[in-house]
Amino acid sequence: MKALITGASSGIGRDMARYLSKLGYDLVIVARNTEALEALKKELNTNVEVISLDLSIKENCYKLHEQAKDIDILINNAGFGLYGLFTETKLDKELSMIDTNITALHILTKLYLKDMVEKDKGHILNVASIAGFMPGPLMATYYATKNYVVSLTRAIRKELKKNKSNVKIGLLCPGPVDTNFNNVANVKFKAKGLTSDYVAKYAVDKMLKNKFIIIPGFFIKCTKFFAKFMPSNLIQEFCYKIQKSKNET
Q1: Full-model pTM
Q2: Going by CATH, does the domain composed of 2-246 fall within 3.40.50.720?
Q3: Which of 59, 101, 160, 169 would staple 124 via disulfide (CB 3.0–4.6 Å)?
């Protein structure tokens, strides 16, 4: 059995690689940071292929699919966020975020899903966020990219079920996690986040049990539940205050 993990050089992706290796999976680990990937490879006891690619470049997504075939599990984990007023954040960074969080995930999901449907087996786990279920003032583009991931994955799951496919697709939707994401996005969480090790193990275990929406942490589960009953304007105000507090020292 072989799993491919994007964004595997740090955080949740790296810990997923560690856990899947312990479970006996061979791995294809993908990220831009070659040194970090090679260091991770040395830790692991199963067969590991390192592929260094920038997936914000569309052609590299096709290249990855050509290089890594016969995948049993695809985990689309690569992505990043950006904090700030929409009028002030840098457009080039936002477009790079869209290319990474949306375009790369879309391409890889389509290419590997077609392979899996043909074999009638396999798992895809798309890493979204609790942000995927709500708007996100002060992180508008990031939240929008995760809304896309949630919507796309939900639709694909329905298609697979209607066609009685044995291929499984799921969504990982964590809240705050202690990873390098916060440094890249330039935010500071006041509340302590879950560890990436915990989130990785929780997500993999639920994925292998065919759980569709995977939300680690009781508080975040409650947040999603109560958001269903809140007026849209109130949700927007709540999200604004949450994002504003992240950038306050």
Answers
A1: 0.85
A2: yes
A3: 169
